[in-house]
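# nightly structure sweep
# worker-07 picked up a monomer target from the shared queue
# config: single-sequence mode, recycle default, output format = structure tokens
# input follows
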Amino acid sequence: MKTHIRKSLKVLLIIIISFSGLVMISAQSADREFDFLETGISYKVLLKNGWDTEGKLLKNDSEAIQIINSLKTFTIKKNDIKQIVKSDEEFKDEDLYKDIAVEVKDTGLKTIELKDGSEFIGHITDSDTSGIRFKTLSGSVVSIKEGQIESIRSERSGYINGTDPNVSRLFLAPTGKNLKGGTGYFSIAEIFFPMLAFGINDYITLAGGMTILPGAEDQLYYFNGKAGGLHFKNLDLSGGVFYTNITSSDESGLTIVYGTGTIGTESLSLTLGGGIPFGGDNNPLLIIGGEAQLSNSIKFITENWIPTEPESGLILSFGLRFFGRRLAGDFGLMYLVDDQGGSATGGGWPFIPWIGFNYNFDL
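# output follows
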């Protein structure tokens, strides 16, 4: 194996060790903070955006808690919780609680669209024949007259501010997590590579697309079927089949059978995967990736492809994802390592830009 390739593998090993250590520390810290919670006991929960609720604890895992009350069962991310106490206790700082003016009567996350085109995201706190009172995710309470409302819809994807809606993949490679049933996304990478994906249920995701290369006689089409949903505390596992071919080709195309696992939380995670191609050189490849959330709308991502035949070269990449409730954009830099350990792009600027845009939707 070439010296330069050995150095690249050492860098990847450092990435794995660093992310693994950070993931373990993050998970242990979150677990200790909520160790006192017991299922079946009623608690009061105050979120960082000022919203509060009360109910019986059904589930407590590494990333979220599940609460049930007389209205519904819902999940709250631990990162969004400011305080949680038993129902017969008071919050430690009453000033954090006393500015909530109305009793919460509907805890479901809603999006309200007004006839003038504006939108509010939050929770309905009260309603009468004239309209509703609505508490936004920022903590503001607004009164909306019935005649101003165009539509009210529930957020089935469980979106809460600060959550990346694209957790089922890195830049390109799949993670161990699946799309939620009834949700999907449309993405376009490098301008010419569109894809549409849809979660059939919480365990099966189907995706496909075709290039839109201008002036080309042939286009590349591709399909991906992914099954997963196996969740073990901080670990998610999935596997699938990817197929691609050229429109006019009489050959069987390229099929890759793969498996992948993601360990960690939504804020910090490590993904390890592998695939076996059929119809090409049939040399297995490995995938190492990581995600680290930097803020409520920015995430650092690294994705690295490692062939088992060193002469094939490595693909190293890193970059940022900017995300919101529906839209997300990826910007990264890819470095292709040739069989001599140098840049496969030749002299000059060694990186290939990676640009992707995503629109997430619920059905």
